[in-house]
Design brief:
Length: 164
């Protein structure tokens, strides 16, 4: 998949976020706010009481090395409801629709880890097993307990109408 074909991108400091869903912008702002100077925030910097309205849409993935591989650590209730099940504890490749025929679906996850930068996506939903709602807008935010080595991804997803 070429860069022009993919439906996600690395977020820069200068990225225009005006058209992002307000919940996606709010989590991105929170992530930037809790980051220590010159580093990435870790799970220890996040307080769920700061973002209670976002929690049902948040999901956390452990980054397991070598690989990396990704395992669901926590899945918000709204996400689990839409998926029709709670994948907490599952490996990402077991939950991704079409993974066997398209392993590049995890390229974005790896890019977020390797770059240490957020990624934003608006495109077809890939985790649902029902496909009853086709599009999702989301953000992946790298987290690092030591401020440098990404060991978790925090994500927020919002189901949206067809953006075309």
């Amino acid at each position: 998949m070429t860069e022009t074909e993919r439906d996600w991108f690395l977020v820069e400091e200068t990225t225009d976020r005006q058209d992002w869903h307000p919940l996606v912008r709010t989590l991105h702002d929170y992530w930037r706010q809790i980051a220590p100077p010159g580093g990435l925030p870790g799970r220890q910097h996040m307080d769920p009481l700061d973002i209670p309205d976002l929690l049902p849409r948040i999901w956390l993935l452990d980054v397991v090395q070598p690989g990396p591989r990704f395992r669901f650590r926590l899945v918000g209730s709204r996400i689990a409801d839409r998926l029709g099940y709670d994948p907490t504890g599952e490996w990402l490749e077991d939950a991704l629709l079409d993974y066997e025929s398209n392993p590049s679906l995890t390229d974005r996850y790896r890019a977020t880890v390797e770059s240490g930068r957020p990624t934003y996506r608006l495109g077809p939903q890939r985790l649902t097993r029902t496909r009853d709602f086709e599009f999702v807008e989301n953000i992946f935010l790298p987290m690092a307990e030591d401020g440098r080595t990404v060991d978790m991804l925090m994500a927020l997803s919002v189901l949206v109408e067809n953006p075309d």
